[in-house]
Amino acid sequence: VSALLQLAWRNVWRNARRSLITTVSMGFGLAAIMFGQSMIKSVQYQIIEKATGSITGHLQVQSRSVKDYKFPDKYIEDPAPIEQALAGQRGISAFGRRIHITGLISSPTASVGVFISAVQPERERRVTTMSSYIVRGQFLPGPKSIVMGERLAQRLDVRLGEKVVVMAQASDGGMGAEAFRLSGVFRTGSASFDGQIIYVPLPAAQELLAVGASINNFAAKLDDIDDADRIKQELAEKLAGKPVQVLSWKDIDHEILAIQKFQNGLLDVVLIIVFAIVALGILNTLLMSLFERVREFGVLMAIGAKPVWVLKLVLIESITLGLIGTA
Q: Residue 243: pLDDT band by 50, 70, 90 thresholds?
């Protein structure tokens, strides 16, 4: 065996230029494949962080009766036990109470249907990144303040400090209305976010909707998003006796999973093409080497080498080139 390895090593470097070309081709091919995988995975990670960091959160707790997870229409009447469970759950770095509901916002010049996100301002700064997108003003500094996207502010023709009226259906079936003063304008680059979402303080929304201390979801940020499934399971076990359900971002943002699936399929096709191109180039080089050594193999077999032994020699040489190229 040692003689076989020694002979294979000598054969590899007998034509140093060809061996270097082969190993460099392997190295560049592997680098191209790794770069493609890393690029797609990085894009996917950024998409997930953008979506979950803007409004969804890594984890949510909603009423068990909710069917459309993006628009929870049922309230959690006693949020205190759920908050205790979230506070004691390992892996959760921040969480906050919320109410998400659709409504209407009006200014002296226009009225627009909007998605109302009622939050706890201090906690929301730790759960999501929306406060970092503020381009003018502040993120909910007062009890009757409101924050909206730049596109929406332009449609309503309102400026910082001016008042708008927010209307939504209250729990008693009537129409609740409340005046808010514009305290901040954000710009995310997303037409739906900048043109359809408003943020108001949670107590003001609870008063507007006449729901008392009730909320319709908790949003949580995790130390590591990859632990979402584990934490979801552990939290669900703690809240087993409560009329709530624990949801990860995968349950809520189905579009992201579809995008991931498409990108992974596209990546597989590209990597197969890259692998085939590199493999054919390497195979061509190795075949040239083999055809040039036909007489050498004949001499080896003439002095007693068996075909299996010659096959092992060629395989060891190829493996050696592959290991060097990989390194």
A: very high
Dist. CA 114–CA 108, nearest whole Å: 16
Cα(26)–Cα(143) distance, integer angstroms: 63
pLDDT at 291: 85
- Residue 121 CA to residue 263 CA, distance in Å, equals 36
**Confidence class for position 213, pLDDT limits 50, 70, 90:** very high
Closest CA to 296 of 308, 283, 305: 305
Q: How long is the chain? A: 327
Q: Are 232 and 97 in contact (CB under 8 A)?
A: no
End-to-end C-alpha distance for the chain, whole angstroms:
24
* Phi (first) and psi of residue 43, to 5 degrees: -60, -45
Apex 31 CA angle, 30 and 32, nearest 5? 90
Q: How confident is the model at residue 218 (pLDDT cuts 50, 70, 90)?
A: very high
What's at 181, amino acid-wise?
R
d(CA 117, CA 119): 6
Please tell me the pTM assigned to this model: 0.74
Q: Phi, psi at residue 188, to the nearest 5°?
A: -105, -20
Question: 251-273, pLDDT tens digit by residue?
Answer: 988 888 888 888 888 888 888 88
Give Cβ neighbours of residue 263 (< 8 Å, ≥ 6 apart).
40, 43, 44
